[in-house]
Amino acid sequence: MSVEFIGIIHTQNVSEIHPPAGPVIDVDYVETIARAHDEGGFDRALVAFHSTGPESQLVVAHAASVTKNLKFMIAHRPGFTAPTLAARQLATLDHFTGGRVAVHIITGGSDEELAKDGDHLTKDERYARTSEYLDIVRAEWTSEKPFDYKGEYYQVDQGFGAVKPLRAPQIPVYFGGSSEAAIPVAGKHADIFALWGETQAQVAETIARVRHAAAKHGRQVKFSLSLRPIIADTEEAAWARADEIVAKAKAIREAAGLPTSGHRPPNAGSQRLLDAAAQGSRLDKRLWTGVAAVTGAAGNSTGLVGTPQQVAEALLDYYDLGVTTFLIRGFDPVEDAIAYGRDLLPLVRKLVAEREAQIEAQPAAAVG
């Protein structure tokens, strides 16, 4: 199996240690960070979705115009655009970008955030709607003749997509969501299931659950893991930087009147990260939960800390569990993306190639 690396493109320089400043859409910044990922050898970059943020597809359209090879992972919330139209929008963008589009389905775990866009369904209802939504999206992408669809949330009469994805049969579908309502939908629809940076035991458990759900549909799913690597020339320097990041993130939240402990967001992914953080700030070989504990695991907020070689080896442990995509982003977004491309990605790809060579050699050795 090959390994894929995904970075992230925000529309301004922002992270847990960089409060939002300046225009919400800083065009120069978008171009700078997109090129950093492109030149650094990342396979894709995520453009996130939030109920108050810029529209992800439009951001990708511009980022694609200033890059050559970088592909994109468009976070998309089902239910706010008709699925027939969304399928055609994504397929159209796929053509204009030369086949560089993937979609990341984010159903949404916070009732409060969803209400900002006028959505008042329960979580279980939202995931049921997502399943219907993706049924229709895939039909638009693949059907060679008009189709009808009758579900609880959508009814389509003679739907048809004249524009198909550039690379048949369809655009890759990444899927996020760890709740009981999410897993069956992931099993039916996900090409790549996205986890946040959990412990190895938690990751193994979730992979087993999703594989079981996918098997019911005769499908196989790949897996992505999101982490925030902290790398430095020495392990001591890396842990010192991790400590500095926690202190700065805590100070920024306190200044903004935000809690720094004891708060649990409603989404299952954050709760799983907080369950890990409750076990300690340093888990497994070098999994670090410091920022997750401070922020209430608001987003992917756990990391791996050490030298590039140490972090690469820790990533390989997850690869051995079945993870073939790593979404990595730093706390200094541009600078860290450059460092990852220079110091980390080549090491991981080398270790993966060596591991695959070992696996391929085993049958021959057994025969011999």
UniProtKB/TrEMBL annotation:
Gene3D superfamilies: Luciferase-like domain (3.20.20.30)
Pfam families named in the record: Bac_luciferase (PF00296)
Classification via SUPFAM superfamilies: Bacterial luciferase-like
Residue stretches making up the Luciferase-like domain: 9-324
Transmembrane segments: none
The keyword Lipid biosynthesis belongs to this UniProt entry's keyword annotation: no
Keyword line: Flavoprotein, FMN, Monooxygenase, Oxidoreductase
Flavoprotein is among the record's keywords: yes
Entry-linked PANTHER family: ALKANESULFONATE MONOOXYGENASE, BLL6451 PROTEIN
Name the record gives this protein: LLM class flavin-dependent oxidoreductase
Organism (species): Caulobacter hibisci
Lineage: Bacteria, Pseudomonadati, Pseudomonadota, Alphaproteobacteria, Caulobacterales
